[in-house]
Every structure is written in structure tokens, then in C-alpha cells.
Amino acid sequence: MPKTLAEQLEEVGLDKIDRSGWPQTLLHLAEIIDRELKRQGLIDDDAGELPALCVALAIADPYGGTQYYIPVCDRVHASIRNAQIWREYTGRNREELAARYGLTIRQIQTIVAEERARRHHKQRGLFDDAA
Fold it and tell me: Per-residue pLDDT for 112 more than 80?
């Protein structure tokens, strides 16, 4: 079985590889990945740059040389926020949630209603399939 990229890089020694000709965008991507993996506690601070570099190279392999649009994550962030609001909602804390999330009470009510409908529909679908 062929060695993984991580195994190859470890075998050679990352510090022994001349990266002066590597694309700066790739190295910057690896830095961002490294910082985020460590911030999230997914790797130890002393893990070195190998995990992040492997992830950056894994992304670069299929997309290297192409112009690839990376979308803004507004909808991702909003869906996470909405799930948090649903989890924290008690029926009596609309004002508190509005203040915490920088939204209006009406927006909180709309989010709760949408989450309730989405979850109810999903739950009904599960039961409908079992019948």
C-alpha cells in the first residue's frame, strides 16, 4: 500500500524540505488550518504543522490550478445560531435571547417558529417512514 502524504512528509522530515518555491496561498491556508485546529482543541499546540499542511495539500490536490469560489458562510453561521436559540428557548426568554444574539423579539419568534416547524416536519418524516 502506498504511503500517505503525512507518512512521506514525516519520513523525509518536514524541516528538510525546501518550501521556498511553494505557493504562498497554500502555505497561508496551512497556517489558517493549523491555527483553527489548535484553537478548537482538535490537535495539541505541540503537534507541529504537519496535520494542517496535510489538510491544505489534500484541498489543493483536487482544486489546485483552478479558480474555486469559497462562499461566504452567512447561512452556516445563521443555522448554527438558530439551533442555539432553539436549544436555549424556554418560552419565556425571548427578550433575553434577542439581547444576547443582537436580534429583535420578532426575529427570535420567527426563528423559533421555523425551527419548531423544521423539527416537527423532520420528526413526522421519521415516523411516516416507519409505518
Answer: yes
For residue 109, what are the contacts with CB-CB under 8 A and spacing of at least 6? 94
Distance, in Å, from the CA atom of 123 to the CA atom of 121, rounded to the nearest integer, reads 5
Residue extent(s) of CATH 1.10.10.60 domains in the chain: 74-130
Report residue 120 as a C-alpha cell. Answer: 416537527
List the CATH code of the domain at 74-130: 1.10.10.60
The pTM of this model reads: 0.66
Separation between Cα atoms, residue 49 and residue 67, nearest integer Å: 25
Contact between 50 and 7 under an 8 Å Cβ cutoff? The reply is no
Instruction: List pLDDT tens digits, range 62-78.
Output: 888 898 888 889 999 99
